């Protein structure tokens, strides 16, 4: 599992960058999951691609990593990990070794045990779960490139209940053309740089308030089609106008 802090180059014209220095441009992926009338676990079980899930976001420290966010209901939350915990080793892998850490995370699968060695606190263990791979993949497409900053968050229940009804029509179909317009009714409650992700039974919706909405078939982001270029193309459809505006009006 790679760090969720990352950046994305979108191939913008060099002349646009001359308008000013907008970096970093923030694009936040917000996972709304699936609507309550759909069986999320059944949807994920049908996917060709499975993604292991621990539920931590972290920052690098001299003695390892410091946990900066614990996703609700994740393996990390169930194990009792807290924001501010400093972790020196996971499964006997030093957190100061970037290559070994990333290889260890990538090798984990659902059901595996993960042991956290914490600084000045007792060790804890968790069982790795699995989650929807697409939101994580969208955030990870921003990695190791310049001038973009991305985070991934599960959306709190109260916010989720306010947003989800605006993304569907009266027949429970995605508003693929104008969901971003519908979200404007929320006013200034939510940041305009947030991209909301929703999984349906046949399609996936991405929408960014004020800027754009895109729907893609589930199969387009599953199995061998789940690639960085495909994920980048999908999110680009939604955020292009926003990014262009940030360059022209930094």
Write the layout of secondary structure elements.
Blueprint: H1 14-17, E1 25-31, H2 40-45, E2 51-53, E3 56-61, E4 64-70, H3 75-79, E5 86-90, E6 93-94, H4 98-107, E7 113-118, E8 124-127, E9 129-131, H5 133-140, E10 148-154, H6 157-163, H7 179-182, E11 194-199, E12 203-208, E13 212-217, H8 228-248
Parallel strand pairs: 1-10, 1-11
Antiparallel strand pairs: 2-9, 3-4, 4-5, 5-6, 5-7, 7-8, 11-12, 12-13
Helix pairs in contact: 5-8
Question: Which structural traits does this protein have?
Answer:
250 residues; alpha+beta; 6-stranded antiparallel β-sheet; 5-stranded mixed β-sheet; globular; disordered N terminus
Distance from N terminus to C terminus (CA atoms, Å) equals 32 Å
Sheet with the most strands? 6 strands, antiparallel
Q: What's the shape? A: globular
Approximate strand percentage: 25-35%
Q: Low-confidence parts lasting 5 or more residues at pLDDT below 50?
A: 1-19
Order of helices and strands: HEHEEEHEEHEEEHEHHEEEH
Assign a percent range to the helix content: 25-40%
- Overall radius of gyration: 19 Å
Task: Classify the oligomer.
Answer: single chain
| Number of beta strands | 13
What is the mean predicted local confidence, pLDDT?
Answer: 83
From the helix content, strand content and strand pairing, which structural class follows?
Answer: alpha+beta
* Number of H- or I-type helical stretches: 8
